[in-house]
Amino acid sequence: MIILGIESSCDETAAAVIENGKTVLSSVVASQVAVHHKYGGVVPELASRMHIESILPVVDQAVREAGLSIDDIEGVAATKGPGLIGALLVGFSFAKAFAWARGIAFAGVNHLEGHLYSLMLNAFPPAFPFTALLASGGHTNLYYVTSYNEFELLGQTRDDAAGEAFDKVAKMLGKGYPGGAVIEKLALQGDPDSIKFPRSFLDKDGFDFSFSGLKSSVARYVKEQKNVLDEKKTADIAASFQKAVIDVLSFKLIRAALSKTCSRIALVGGVSANSFLADELSNQALKHGMNFHVPEGEFCGDNAAMIGARGYRLIKDGKLSGLEDDVFSRVKKA
Fold first, then answer.
1. Which domains does the chain have, with CATH numbers?
2. What is the mean pLDDT of the segment spanning 206-219?
């Protein structure tokens, strides 16, 4: 089955062509980073406008790069949420119209489940069950995944997501957007043990996260040090902040896996591109006799291949969306 996947939940307009839920025939992403960089974050109205301009060229390019024609597409999958409503509506409405006009199957995909499915695009995806940390700009969740359609939410952030905290700290340091790559690069030059920022474990037996206290601590430190904030001090702040986040993320993921007696852990979402976090989890997995899985680099962030992979499974199982279906901005907190 040939599936066209479409993703437009935030600031990436993406389209991909997937065969049988695993083989990526093409994956095209039109980034808006240059547009939003000067604002220090994503401006929703601008994001929506850019999606409108990009959606048709991106879909056309994805089909051409796959070496196919429109007539070869047998199903369409698009992100229905969570995300920015205006941005979601562009991709979802396009996909819905595309499927209706051609009389083919259409599935709306939960963006978070899409990130979990990015692992299915690996040459050697994890066997079930596995425990996964989803860390991105909008979400920090822990899941126990037992099948292609069963995702048990174990914990989630009570305030800022990990990626959101990276963006805000980068902005505090005057380094712009996106913050994840900026902080990681700065951290290479800094001492992660130079500043003792707090680790908010909340209930150590629980799996929820909180990063607002850490963010506030960094803000206070930056304000106190503003007169001596040279390159070295800035790098030390980035490295120490990053280590504080990684310590909590790795602790919670390993503890969740142990609570389920699960020997497989995974990291997905935009923050999975952070090499420091991936290295720490790899080391922790080795220490606890676990297998560690992370998506290929191009599928760590928002992309349409993961949406197509999840959509394939939904269509195959007959879980289709109708013309009356709509997008949603957020998942209700557990």
1. 2-116+299-316 (3.30.420.40), 126-294 (3.30.420.40)
2. 96
